[in-house]
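Postdoc handover notes: sequence design on the structure in folder B. Input tokens:
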């Protein structure tokens, strides 16, 4: 299974390198369209290679997707945490009740009862 992962990563690396080499031309990125920039009075722009724009968009999409999913699953993590603390509380209560029940019994019987 490890070799399949390494093979996949190698193929992915080769594909990304070939895409990067094929798209080295510079493109101009503008913050706003020209008409709107004239209205506002300023426009930020920069010139970057096309592969940086494409791969940057993919990375930004992955980060936004992971963040969105993490926020969406917050209620499930909160419920699991509450249930875990409730289980711990109930386990402590059961131990306390077993000790109370086994106080008047013989020590060997109490140990056997606690083990089960």
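Designed sequence:
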């Amino acid at each position: 299974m490890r070799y399949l992962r390494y093979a996949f990563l190698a193929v992915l690396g080769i594909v990304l390198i070939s895409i990067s080499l094929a798209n080295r031309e510079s493109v101009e990125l503008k913050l706003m369209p020209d008409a709107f920039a004239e209205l506002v009075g300023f426009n930020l722009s920069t010139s970057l290679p096309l592969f940086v724009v494409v791969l940057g968009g993919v990375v930004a999409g992955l980060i936004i997707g992971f963040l969105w999913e993490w926020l969406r699953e917050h209620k499930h993590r909160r419920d699991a945490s509450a249930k875990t603390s409730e289980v711990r509380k109930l386990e402590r209560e059961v131990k306390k009740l077993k000790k109370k029940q086994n106080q008047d019994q013989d020590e060997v019987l109490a140990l056997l009862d606690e083990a089960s």
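Context for whoever picks this up: The longest strand covers residues 26-30. Don't rerun without checking with the PI first.
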